[in-house]
Amino acid sequence: MAINRRDFLKFSAGAGLMLTAAPTRGQAAPRGELPPDAVGILYDATLCIGCMSCMVNCKKANSEPGGALYHKETAGQIPFEYPQGDPIYDAPDNLSSKTLCVIKAYRDGDGEQPGQSEKGGPAFSFVKQHCLHCLEPACVSVCPVAALQKQPDTGIVTYNKNRCFGCRYCQIACPFGIPAYEWEKASPSVVKCQLCNHRYAQGGYSACCEFCPTGASIFGKVKDLREEAKRRLALKPGETYAYPVKRVDGDERTEQVVAEYVNHVYGLEEAGGTQYLFLAGVSFDKLGFNPRITNQVYPDFTWDYVSHVPALIGTLLVAGTALRVVTQKLEKKNNDAGKGDAS
Ligand code: SF4
Ligand code: SF4
Ligand code: SF4
């Protein structure tokens, strides 16, 4: 489809405006500090059995299609009930525009027992990946139109698709490779975990924690999650501990034998700190965490880089705006055609 002169001028003017309105660092709490009501998730890989209930319920809570035990007729329904017939089985192996949360596995040699520490020989561990809700999110800092924002009270990093014009600079900036893009859609959006912000606003909390049967994923105030994580690191392997289930501040507990932890809470310092914290029995680089991610605040890295390559931003902004114009035109054309068919 050709873009006519009017469209070209429209997108050029838009891109020009974007370029003159230079990106500003996103609004957040003072550097390195937790927002006052910061909420997050603690994932303890030594408790995770790889059941993927978190993945399935993440999809249901966010009305995303596909995924283990997915059935299109019940997608988005809560509570969830299967219709007659077999569900469709599908296990995504990575984050994508349809998968905001993914469980991956690490196995070394004969390791078979989930949560098996590498200190005891062959290791086996699951790991749950989704947005870490960084204290200083690089994605927020580079977004020229504030489509991504860190909420000043909860610290949740949210996305507003009505602001986004598709430059996808957030994808390049995120040190954890989290944001996905809906390439398959005529009018695409960036997709990532928003910590079930919509459920939290209505008194609920993250679906991946609510439906985790073992307490491997728990939701709560970040300061409580940090204390809980440090408490676990002080436990002795082999003793029993009443692990909280679903929420760190809830009454539900499960008695479990304490595994051998790697003596580190991932996310306390990495990338300037995150609101999604991890414990594991296997070193974090083996679980897929990039060892090149340091404790440095990532917007600093990004801005050092960006300030030296303004042409890169310009190119991305113009390309993103052009893409948006084209896709919106395509979508309008499809809609118009659809209306014609229906009549
Ligand atoms: S993990 Fe990536 S997408 Fe999530 S807040 Fe941090 S920079 Fe943004
Ligand atoms: S917090 Fe919500 S959106 Fe994020 S991974 Fe968990 S269920 Fe999915
Ligand atoms: S985090 Fe919980 S729900 Fe997800 S796979 Fe592990 S045990 Fe299952």
TrEMBL record:
Transmembrane segments: none
Keywords annotated in UniProt: 4Fe-4S, Iron, Iron-sulfur, Metal-binding, Repeat
Pfam families for the chain: Fer4_11
Ranges for domain 4Fe-4S ferredoxin-type: 39-68, 122-153, 155-184
SUPFAM superfamilies recorded: 4Fe-4S ferredoxins (SSF54862)
GO cellular component: cell envelope
Localization of this protein: Cell envelope
GO molecular-function terms, A-Z: 4 iron, 4 sulfur cluster binding; metal ion binding
InterPro entries assigned to the protein according to its UniProt record, in alphabetical order: 4Fe4S_Fe-S-bd (IPR017896), 4Fe4S_Fe_S_CS (IPR017900), FDH_Electron_Transfer_Unit (IPR051555), TAT_signal (IPR006311), TAT_signal_bac_arc (IPR019546)
Subcellular location, principal: other
PANTHER family assigned: FORMATE DEHYDROGENASE, NITRATE-INDUCIBLE, IRON-SULFUR SUBUNIT, HYDROGENASE-2 OPERON PROTEIN HYBA
Quaternary context: Heterodimer of a large and a small subunit.
Protein name: Hydrogenase 2 protein HybA
